[in-house]
Specification:
heterodimer, A: mainly alpha, two-stranded antiparallel ribbon, 5 helices, extended, B: mainly alpha, 2 domains, 8 helices, 0% strand, globular
Chain lengths: 158, 215
């Protein structure tokens, strides 16, 4: 995690805060354990209050930590994801984010940098593959990045 | 049918005609695993619809009021918690069902001709429900079918959960996207079963009582 004081150059504070607040949408945050007609009916059977309250949320966190442990046991670092033919790439590449595509910030490709920081083996800066810097340099590792709409969130299934 | 059935163990003289355990329609382990399963399945459907809505496969989404978790991350937490309940409970049910021979006794044999006959009779309202302890062919087909759907939904769920570590399983199901479709249609089959199952239980309230009290 990046602390506020160590924000790299070129990081727009407003955009960052906007993204962070979107991470926790307040109205649905309160619906976290509610909003479930099916569960409401279930309490009739069980006779206990499981829909509401922090105890359920806490229990879910505990199970989530157990899942992390199981996933770590399952994970084999030598097992690589299969390589797919180029024809298997979906074009245009589907937008992936926790906000709708219209809300994605417009980014100046020539100035955009992705900084890999924190608890990583090698800290580095990357330019957007479409930028003039990367066009001149090494071959693009991510030819699928959307022009001018770059999400710095990556999640890879393991 | 009712006279020879074992739902009434007391004969005219007031003595027990059969040992009481024979009058139990659903043994305790079946009742306990049934209701734990019901809880797990409802949580999994509600949270699964929440997850579906975040990235719909088809041109529709599920009404938010029927989903669980509030948003994608909440749905995932519920889904990945209830999956342990479903699998652990399902294993207990299947192991005990195989060990006691109850699964084989209750579900086999399933003859297609009998299924057609009993489904037609059920739709015409002519199917006898006097003997709750013995399943008719329509019930056998439904229960065997939903067990199969359960196996398919767990397998496709595993393939989506760990598509790299379990890539052979994922490949068997047509890759990640294939597994999503299989998972969705297995859910649809289970929801369809649930509708029929609940309607039948309400039409024959004795069967609901039997799943709670055992007889």
């Amino acid at each position: 995690m990046r602390r506020a004081g160590r924000r790299g150059p070129g990081v727009d504070t407003g955009l960052l805060l906007g993204d962070a607040s979107k991470l926790l949408p307040e109205p649905s945050r309160r619906l976290f354990l509610r909003n479930a007609a099916s569960l409401g009916a279930l309490t009739l059977f069980t006779g206990c209050e499981i829909v509401d309250g922090r105890s359920a949320e806490k229990a879910l966190r505990v199970v989530s930590q157990f899942n992390d442990w199981v996933q770590a046991r399952l994970f084999n670092p030598n097992r690589l994801a299969p390589t797919y033919a180029e024809s298997a790439i979906t074009r245009p590449f589907p937008f992936n984010g926790y906000y709708p595509e219209e809300a994605a910030p417009d980014i100046d490709e020539d100035r955009y940098k992705l900084i890999v920081d924190g608890l990583v083996a090698s800290r580095r800066r990357r330019r957007s593959p479409g930028s003039s810097a990367s066009r001149a340099g090494a071959p693009s590792a991510n030819g699928q990045a959307r022009r001018s709409r770059t999400s710095s969130h990556a999640s890879a299934p393991t | 049918m009712a006279l020879t059935g074992n739902t009434n163990p007391v004969d005219a003289s007031g003595t027990q005609a059969q040992p009481p355990e024979q009058s139990v329609i659903h043994p305790l382990y079946v009742r306990i695993t049934h209701w734990i399963n019901a809880l797990a399945v409802l949580i999994l459907i509600g949270s699964g619809w929440q997850i579906y809505n975040a990235s719909p496969l088809f041109a529709f989404t599920f009404p938010g009021s029927l989903t669980l978790g509030g948003w994608l991350a909440g749905g995932l937490l519920w889904h990945f918690a209830a999956m342990w309940l479903l699998v652990a409970n399902g294993l207990v049910y299947v192991v005990l069902g195989l060990a006691t021979g109850r699964l084989r006794r209750q579900l086999l044999p399933i003859r297609p001709a009998d299924v057609v006959r009993d489904v037609a009779a059920a739709l015409a309202g002519r199917l006898s429900r006097d003997d709750l302890a013995r399943y008719n062919a329509a019930q056998k087909a439904l229960y065997a079918g939903v067990l199969l759907a359960g196996v398919v939904i767990v397998a496709s769920g595993l393939a989506m959960w760990k598509p790299v570590q379990l890539q052979e399983l994922a490949a068997l199901l047509g890759g990640y996207e294939g597994a999503r479709l299989v998972h969705f249609f297995a859910m649809a089959a289970i929801v369809l079963f649930l509708v029929v199952h609940v309607v039948m239980a309400l039409l024959v309230p004795r069967s609901l009582r039997a799943m709670i009290r055992g007889r």
